[in-house]
Amino acid sequence: MDLQAPVQYVKGVGPLRAEALAQAGVRTAEDLLLHLPMRYEDRRSFARVADLRPGMRVSVSGEIAVAGLRRARRMTIYELRLDDGSGRLKVVFFNQPYLRETLPRGKKVVLFGLVERDAMASRLLVMRSPQYEIVEGDEHGGIHTGRLVPVYEKLGPLTVKPLRRILAHLAEQVPADLPDPLPDDLRERLVVIGRGEALRRVHRPGDGDRLELLNAFRSPAHVRLILEELLLFQIGLARRRVGMRAERKRAAFEVRDAARQAVKRILPFALTGAQKRVLREIADDLRSPHPMNRLVQGDVGSGKTLVALLAMVVVLENGYQTAFMAPTEILAEQHYLTFRRLLERCSYRVELLTSAVKGRERTEMLARIASGEAQIVIGTHALIQEGVGFRRLGLAVADEQHRFGVLQREDLRKKGYDADVLVMTATPIPRTLALTAYGDLDVSIVDEKPPGRTPIRTLLRPASERREVLDLVNRAVAEGRQAYVVYPLVEESEKLEDVRAATEASAEWAAALPGVRVGLLHGRMKSAEKEATMGAFSGGEIQVLVSTTVVEVGVDVPNATVMVIEHAERFGLAQLHQLRGRVGRGAASSSCVLLAYGRLSEVARSRLDVMVSTEDGFAIAERDLEIRGPGDFFGTRQWGMPTFRAAHLIRDRDLVERARIEAFRLVGDGGPLPPALAGFLEKGGWERRFGLARVG
Is the pTM of this model over 0.90? Predict the structure, then answer.
């Protein structure tokens, strides 16, 4: 059997269904076999009709004693009585008149479904539209009943029953001697069964398989297919990493005295031990003849932005340009204001390129970038797309890395830049994901906050307790402290109604806090206005800052000790954690108040409970991953997140580690892979599917 055969030739599919399946990414017999069940049900034992009770989900077997078709309220009802010798069970099917021919009186069948009390006669029990299978002779082993039965998600036009029938037949065709890409010694180390056996058993589990292991995706068949997929992906990452280390960049940078002097002028305080360690690792990469590909991650307030800026200074003093990419234009603007403040004693030219820069101003800015006059260019990842050309790009820094994955890093090289790449996140990435989406990168962790920081008390309050929150802010201001009040945005662009609502909110806070100087910050303000407002807040002229702009980064006001987040239920966990990190930057005790409105959904409640329970960014990231799942955690696949068929990054985090160890052992320094494995990778197009086709 050829697993690469077009899916249309699989029994039960045909050309029309194949066309629809192709839209779901299923083009071959193997693709179809890798559509795994979402759960399994034990339908091996048959309950006696006499023992049935409402709420039971069971299999029953017997003979159809009575059957008839009737019409009622524009629908057809096919009703029968199943007799198993211990009693009779009422069974009804709606709008399936053809069952009169399929399930006539006298036919022996197996049914599986939910037992309910009959609304028409409460003393009777009924099964409504159960799954059924006709028993031929004395044989009870079918596809839909009488065994451990797989349950699938709908795939294209195929619903559960036809899909189960097609896959049961297809799994039976998988030969026992199917070529295995994993060599014998590797299978022994991983303790996994052969590929052919796994593909058969995952769709046709036997009596020896345990239901709890099947449903936990830890049966021998599941473990084999999950490890295989993770191993192939990690091999792609390992080969990519070896390839990148073999490349040579245009220039290895020197750490010159001019850079050291500039660093001294920039530093507002002594670096922490973690910052010094990470800066040394980055400096080693900059001096290396090979391109840097490093991920810097750390918790909010650990000083990653400053580390990135110092790395940029080294490159600037070597005569090269740097690009700093933020995930949104609002965050790009905030970084621009921060860099301007930190670099006020230096002569570097900093430019902010966003969609707001138009016409002649944009043309002139693009010319300065192309000539090299613009030394630090800040924007979104659009900086590396069409229309923007750098004269000598030496370092690209990308912030908030869950928005800038493998494929975006590839764009840099496609444009002809052999620049060093430094990617960083203030949202700690769970280790499982760091080993997948960013597994081709070297990782540095800034795991230390500047000295003198105090823990932040986090409170969850319903809007009805707003008076208590006002009192908290008032007390803080009376003690000479400051506060933030943040409102969620409907859209990043900030519609006029958002601005109007923010203006009204600012007026409400001013009225509720007489004598307190309340300022307003929103996205429609010009950069100079924002800079002036933030300057007034930093200088203490503004005591309470009401903002619709997401003040997630670049704002460091140690005197601010209260963060009030309005409509906290609308924010994601990562964003809530970043906002909370704007306070707690001095020695005074700080508070973050999560103001929630209306009845909270289960997911919203989970998010807010996590915020109250911990300040640990890595713990928060793990919980965020569990709540949202890996796809939502990273956004869409275009941001570099791989799509797995068997593996799941939350459930299978232990297997990710095992696969990575074996993959990097196999790839080593770039030598050949075992022939069967190399052939399988090429034939199956695995690296192309994961966006890892480029190796070196």
Answer: no
